[in-house]
Amino acid sequence: MDRTLVFTVGTGRNRADIARAILFSIEQHNPDRVVLLCSELTVKETLPFILKELGDRRHEEHVVGNENDVQFLYQEYLEILKKHSNVVVDFTSGTKAMSAALFAAGIAAGAKQISYVIGPRDDTGRVVKSTGVLSFAPDLVVAERQ
User: Fold this and answer.
1) d(CA 11, CA 36)
2) CA dihedral in degrees (126, 61, 59, 45; nearest 10)?
3) pLDDT class for 94, splitting at 50, 70, 90?
4) For residues 88 and 28, what is the distance between their CA atoms, to the nearest angstrom?
5) CA 25 to CA 133: how far, in whole Å?
6) Residues with Cβ < 8 Å from 7, sequence gap 6 or more?
7) Nearest alpha carbon to residue 36 among 28, 45, 47, 44
8) Cβ(67)–Cβ(45) under 8 Å?
9) How many CB atoms lie within 10 A of CB 122?
10) Exposed, middle or buried, 100 (CB in 10 Å: 0-12/13-18/19+)?
């Protein structure tokens, strides 16, 4: 069964830093397909860095407006996630609303894992180098809710 890795795509400090974090996560998870959830800005500024290194890996790009509206994004992301099975969501980048919406939609859609990239941080609190990916099964959240 194909495994799909879904990301929110942010801007970071210089766009290339976010692209490196996303590519690091792709390398770690080794999915069959990648889904990139972008804003109007990130599709122009960050996505080219990702696509340059993605090679011939199967991928989809979705440009979703209202990158600061959690409820709107949740609904959009949920529809996208429902089209895939065996999903892992990664909320490493994107606006806070994008990350929160993907996290919630991942749980609602039954994602197998939720993950994010970690690493040492600079004095602004931003990760300067991706050194690991932390993942957890959202079943714990679902079980607690029930």
Assistant:
1) 13
2) -50
3) confident
4) 12
5) 7
6) 22, 25, 34, 35, 36, 37, 89, 90, 91, 92, 93, 94
7) 47
8) no
9) 10
10) middle
What span, in angstroms and rounded, lies between the C-alpha atoms of 13 and 46?
11
Nearest of 54, 47, 124, 56 to residue 93 by alpha carbon:
47
Q: What is the pLDDT of residues 71-83, one digit of tens each?
A: 999 999 999 999 9
Residue pointed to by tokens 């991706």: 130
104 sits in which H/E element: helix 96-108
For residue 124, what is the DSSP state? T
Q: In one letter, which amino acid is 21? A: A
Distance of CA 130 to the CA centre of its chain: 15
With a CB cutoff of 8 Å and minimum separation 6, the contacts of 92 are 7, 8, 18, 21, 22, 25, 115, 116, 117
Cα separation, 35 vs 87, in Å, equals 10
Count CB atoms within 10 A of the CB of residue 1: 6
pTM of the predicted structure, to 2 decimals:
0.89
